[in-house]
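Question (not urgent): is this output format expected?
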Amino acid sequence: MRIASLLPSSTEIVCALGLEADLVARSHECDFPSTVTKLPPITAPKFNPDGRSYEVDQRVKAILQEATSVYKIDAERLKSLQPDVLVTQTQCEVCAVSFAEVQRVVCDYLDLPAEIIALEPNRLSDVLDDIQRVAQTLHVPERGVSLVEEMLARMGAIANQSRQLTPPRVATIEWIEPLMAAGNWMPELVTMAGGMNIFGKTGEHSPWLTWDELILADPDMIVILPCGYDMTTAHRELPALTLHPRWDKLKAVQNGHIYITDGNQYFNRPGPRLVESVEILAEILHPEVFHFGHEGTGWERLASE
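Got this back:
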């Protein structure tokens, strides 16, 4: 079977199911496991992804006013690879090539006889269902069951332990400028890790957030996990927060509870590594109890000035 994956999370799912050898193409953002980077990328952004978060936001919004997707597909390369299955998504037009664009290229332009699997992970149960659906389509249903059972066991162990702990009030920031809180599966992960999520609702898209709302809520902890950004890039964007005249008024800032994470590798990808995402949150929220070894690579505490 020849598989083309059009988003990082589906590439991780395929590999976790033991089918990396069947991948023939990836998206330009697929980078885990590192061995997939040798595969030809068949997507690319229609905008310049470099620049400040505010600039990127404006470019994306401008494109979406005129197009259904902010990414393009290399149709000729895809045709030459002749995949049997394409894995894409319908959850977010900004996260990967839109489903409409995939259909247009595969069905209308290329007329490929490929099966399209469209994932739509809005909450944790959707992610687990998607894993099993991919496994079923790729004829390894038992591997999907095993992977989901393993994920649930690891996350459940953390959740059971964290229930005995006092939950801090947590704000998760998914975009820095303009401010956006994390929704979808993130409220569930925060709860599992022993926190009380105060912005964003399970199963709903990530909401925009105003400074008035953030100041009024005054969270105990702020976890910054910008979509598509690693910790280095997130640090580069921090002045949009730290130089804001109201930043120092926040309790979390005054108490030194601001945390930077690798949102790109963990929280933003609805796949097998959401388990590690829960571990990272547990280490941040309850460092006296949880130690998984992610500090320094998956997260770090912002030094107080």
